[in-house]
From TrEMBL, chain A:
CDD domains membership: ABC_DR_subfamily_A
Protein name: ABC-2 type transport system ATP-binding protein
Membrane topology label: Peripheral membrane protein
Record PANTHER family: ABC TRANSPORTER ATP-BINDING PROTEIN
Subcellular location(s) of the protein: Cell membrane
Gene Ontology terms, MF aspect: ATP binding; ATP hydrolysis activity
InterPro entries cross-referenced by the UniProt entry: AAA+_ATPase, ABC_transporter-like_ATP-bd, ABC_transporter-like_CS, ABC_transporter_ATP-binding, P-loop_NTPase
UniProtKB/TrEMBL annotation, chain B:
Originating species: Arthrobacter subterraneus
Pfam hit, one: ABC2_membrane
Membrane topology: Multi-pass membrane protein
TM ranges: 28-48, 60-82, 103-130, 136-159, 166-186, 225-243
Subcellular location(s) of the protein: Membrane
Annotated GO MF terms: ABC-type transporter activity
Sorted UniProt keywords: Antibiotic resistance, Membrane, Transmembrane, Transmembrane helix
GO cellular component, one term: ATP-binding cassette (ABC) transporter complex
Highest classification ranks of the organism: Bacteria, Bacillati, Actinomycetota, Actinomycetes, Micrococcales
Residue ranges occupied by any ABC-2 type transporter transmembrane domain in the UniProt entry: 16-214
Name used for this protein in its record: ABC-2 type transport system permease protein
GO biological processes: response to antibiotic
Length: 296, 246
């Protein structure tokens, strides 16, 4: 099992986390939450001022070539030299490993051949991301760190990259990624750590986080005639409101029985709602509850 | 799953950095064109007669010292500064190459490009009639080693502490100053007396004087050698201490 535990002060405080093989572990947080710092401590790019970090059982800050060869890293800014052509760079990085992945195969898989002759500085954001991912993968790593892997990706690139990440997880890699996109975490991650202001605020599997007992709030929305007299007395444990005329929101710990009560009320009042929608909590709701609704 | 052997990694990175330097147009101007211009000016104009003895005999070793400044200090410093800005240093240091492999590769590239410069400058000078004493070759090579080390470390020190734009400005300005009044081409004792005591302590003067002693009279200039070794040691310690990778 590969693991990393970090407890960091100042920028990071009380952040303790762990990534396992065959799993995608996501660090989720707004910009500036401390995701990259956490990752850099785990990668050996920063020396934490306190706490401990273990990467495949070793101290990443003192990592030798043997440890580095087992870890693939995609940095947020890519770290790609601007004047070099993509395949030459990939070939160069491959040369650092005893048994690298097949370069043409990897280039083909990530669609690098379509811009093989273009220097890195003229690549689009998505093309750079795919090249950086190829560079991180070319050494056949056991642990893969991806800092904001979907930044700048167009929908097609995103599909290619997500498919590949799922495949690598199935191959048994420990994958750690950061993202500020909830959709990414929900789609990719087995386990999510939510970081805010350098603190670990919540963690769990995506179902755990969205199904958390205290958070088991569902909402029902329906559209009908304006200014109905609401059956609040019949459903005292729920909140029924009309935020905009004709649109109603029922929120709280909804049960099947509550739906029967609502339906009975509609029948009594001869109401046929124009639409009815039941929503469950998404990771986004959890995240926004924690980080606040303010845009940072 | 496992890393390539250390010499393989370093050699490969050396080759990569060499090609990067040779593909860079500005770098080539600095490494080849400007030293060739300096050599031509010395050989074909009376400009140098006021400062040195026979034009090629005193002038060529200075141009060789200038090549070291161009490649080890200015060229390498600028390239490293921008690599640092773009995160290339960080990325490569996470591969099996590592931080030390990265630096060793850069030193190798400096050596390779400098060999090419020496071949071009040396051949041109010989074609123009330069006849260095055969006994001077070994002392000259001995002088080049601490010279390259000192200027590479100084270049890395600047590249690793300043912004790349500042590195660009500083290393170019220092190149011009050292080339003109740093004892590189014009021997220190021919410069205005007021600046002589300072110039005598510069690594550029030590390299210029050492190479002139070797290639003009075939002797080994121990004090210049010692001064260069001192600069190399101090600059290396400072670079290791203050170099920032990101």
């Amino acid at each position: 099992m590969s693991s990393l535990d970090g407890k960091m002060v100042r920028v990071l405080d009380g952040v303790s986390l762990r990534a396992e093989t065959g799993r995608v572990t996501a660090l989720l947080g707004a910009n500036g939450a401390g995701k990259t710092t956490t990752l850099e401590c785990a990668q050996g790019l920063q020396k934490p001022s306190g706490g401990s970090v273990r990467l495949l059982g070793q101290d990443p800050w003192r990592a030798g070539a043997a440890l580095r060869s087992r870890v693939g890293i995609m940095l947020q800014e890519g770290g790609l030299p601007p004047a070099v052509r993509p395949l030459a760079l990939l070939q160069h990085v491959a040369g650092m490993y005893a048994a690298p992945r097949d370069v043409p195969g990897l280039a083909d898989r990530l669609g690098l051949n379509s811009f093989a002759r273009t220097p890195v500085r003229r690549l689009s954001g998505g093309q750079k991301q795919r090249l950086a991912l190829a560079c991180a993968l070319v050494g056949n790593p056991e642990v893969l760190f991806l800092d904001e892997p979907s930044a700048g990706l167009d929908p097609q690139s995103r599909n290619i990259v997500f498919e590949l990440i799922n495949e690598l997880r199935a191959e048994g890699l420990a994958i750690v990624l950061t993202t500020h996109l909830l959709d990414d975490a929900q789609k990719l991650a087995d386990y999510v750590y939510i970081i805010d202001h350098g603190r670990l605020v919540r963690h769990g599997t995506v179902p755990d986080l969205t199904r958390h007992a205290a958070d088991a709030v569902r909402e029902l929305h329906f559209e009908a005639a304006e200014h109905l007299r609401l059956p609040s007395a019949r459903l005292p444990h729920l909140t029924i409101t009309e935020p905009t005329p004709g649109r109603y929101r029922v929120s709280g710990p909804l049960t099947p029985e509550d739906l029967a009560v609502l339906a009975a009320w509609w029948a009594e009042e001869r109401i046929l709602p124009a639409s009815i929608a039941l929503t469950s909590r998404s990771l986004e709701d959890v995240f926004l509850d924690i980080s606040g609704r303010n845009i940072r | 799953m496992s890393a390539a052997a250390l010499p393989v990694r370093v050699l490969q990175h050396g080759r990569y950095e060499t090609l990067a330097m040779l593909r860079n147009g500005e770098q080539l101007v600095l490494a080849i064109v400007l030293p060739l211009l300096a050599l031509s000016a010395i050989a074909f104009t009376p400009f140098f007669d006021a400062f040195g003895g026979p034009r090629l005999e005193t002038g060529t070793p200075g141009v060789i010292a200038l090549c070291v400044l161009s490649t080890a200090f200015t060229g390498q410093g600028i390239a490293t500064g921008f690599d640092r800005r773009y995160g290339v240093l960080r990325f490569l240091s996470t591969t099996p190459l590592g931080r030390s492999g990265l630096i060793l590769g850069k030193i190798l590239a400096v050596g390779a490009v400098l060999s090419l410069q020496l071949a071009v400058i040396g051949t041109t000078a010989v074609l123009l009639g330069w006849q260095p004493p055969p006994g001077g070759i070994l002392p000259a090579l001995a002088m080049l080693i601490p010279g390259i080390a000192a200027f590479t470390a100084l270049g890395l020190l600047i590249a690793g502490t300043l912004r790349p734009e500042a590195t660009l400005a500083v290393t170019n300005l220092v190149w011009v100053l050292l080339a003109a009044v740093g004892g590189t081409i014009i021997p220190g004792d021919r410069l205005p007396e007021a600046i002589q005591p300072v110039v005598a302590l510069l690594p550029s003067a030590a390299l210029g004087d050492g190479l002139r002693a070797a290639l003009a009279s075939g002797t080994f200039d121990l004090s210049s050698f010692a001064l260069l070794c001192g600069w190399a040691a101090v600059a290396s310690v400072a670079a290791v201490r203050w170099f920032k990778w990101s």
